[in-house]
Amino acid sequence: MENIIDLHTHSTASDGTLAPAELVAYAAAKHLQVLALTDHDTIDGLQEAAEEAKRQSLIFVPGIEINIAWPTGEFHLLGLGLQRVSPELRAVLQLLADGREERNRQMAEKLQEAGVPVTLEEVRARFNTKMLGRPHFAQYMVEKGFVKQRQEAFDRFFAKGRGCFVERTGADLAEAVAAIKSSGGAPVQAHPLSMYVSWGKMDGVMEEIRDKGVLGLEAWHPGVRVAEAERLEELGHRLGMIVTAGSDFHGEKVRADRKLGHTAGGKHIGFRFWQEELQPLLCRLHGGNSMEFQP
Questions:
Q1: What is the Cα–Cα distance from 273 to 247, expressed in whole angstroms?
Q2: 0.90 exceeded by the pTM?
Q3: What is the 3-state secondary structure (H, E, C) of 78-134?
Q4: Which residues contact 13 (CB under 8 A, 6 or more apart)?
Q5: Which of 48, 80, 47 is nearest to 273 (CA)?
Q6: What CA–CA distance (Å, rounded) separates 70 from 20?
Q7: Residue 134 near residue 107, CB atoms below 8 Å
Q8: How are strands ordered across the β-sheet holding 59-68?
Q9: Rounded CA gap, 155 and 115, in Å?
Q10: Residue closest to 270 by CA, chosen among 236, 235, 233, 240
Q11: pLDDT tens, position by position, for the chain (295 residues)?
Q12: What count of other Cβ atoms lies within 10 Å of the Cβ of residue 227?
């Protein structure tokens, strides 16, 4: 049986549908050998996932996905192989948490102005999560009958350019890179095509990003075609960066096209992305092969 891994997944600690331990158990049932948990702007699920990974004899990579301030599209930075939560990382996460709270408050106000009687207090009480965001508002609106499905809430209210859209707070790239490195992790850019940079400018932009301390790029992601993933992998290696692959799994019912252990073109995520790419880098960063996470 082929060794399968996944270096980009989400749990209920952010916007996934499986609890951290459930996600790890699900990965073990799917015969994955290596799993990274990379919840948005939080490390809250890492300890639970790490403990379950020990029970399942699965290699666990503690991680995070940080929203970065960027002028076009979106820029997400993965931190893979975290060993601790440094003061620098705590500061970045607090900045993002404060920005998220303000964004949610403004979205609720805009919904009420648009004639949709949804309050922030109602949504917070329904989901009881510190990572409240647009998906939770959308789900609540479905449950209350204001829209028929979550995508309709985005299309009508929350997508960029719609009346209830509020821009997310993003961390400074250099500060996020420093925060990840001071926590023992490797900064890796998630799904680079989401930056909305043309291929003609991609080489120069990625070179600038590398020069700011980003050590790798996620070439393989379900949101790109196989030919694009291959092109990104070649670019990453040419720039001296490691290349990773992930499913960006949030749960089977969230995105049918994102299956654990699968990436661009529905391909299995091969063990080479761990053995030949991420593991050697983490060994250099950690001075060994320890993947222990200390909250």
A1: 13
A2: yes
A3: EEECCCECCHHHHHHHHHHHHHHHHHHHHHHHHHHHCCCCCCHHHHHHHHCCCCCCH
A4: 20, 37, 39, 42, 44, 45, 131
A5: 80
A6: 29
A7: yes
A8: 4-6, 32-37, 59-68, 75-80, 186-190, 216-220, 242-245
A9: 16
A10: 233
A11: 579 999 999 999 998 989 999 999 999 999 999 999 999 999 999 999 999 999 999 999 999 999 999 998 899 999 999 999 999 999 999 999 999 999 999 999 999 999 999 999 999 999 878 889 998 999 999 999 999 998 999 999 999 899 999 999 999 999 999 999 999 999 999 999 999 999 999 999 999 999 999 999 999 999 999 999 999 999 999 999 999 999 999 998 777 789 999 999 999 999 999 999 999 999 999 886 566 777 7
A12: 10
| CA-based nearest residue to 291, from 93, 49, 121 | 49
Q: Is 164 within 8 Å of 158 (Cβ atoms)?
A: yes
Q: CB–CB of 16/249 below 8 Å?
A: yes
Q: How many helical (H) and strand (E) elements, i.e. helices and strands, does the chain have?
A: 11, 7
Burial environment of residue 54 by CB neighbours within 10 A (0 to 12, 13 to 18, 19 or more): exposed
- The encoded tokens of residue 119 equal 């309050």
H or E element, residue 188 = strand 186-190
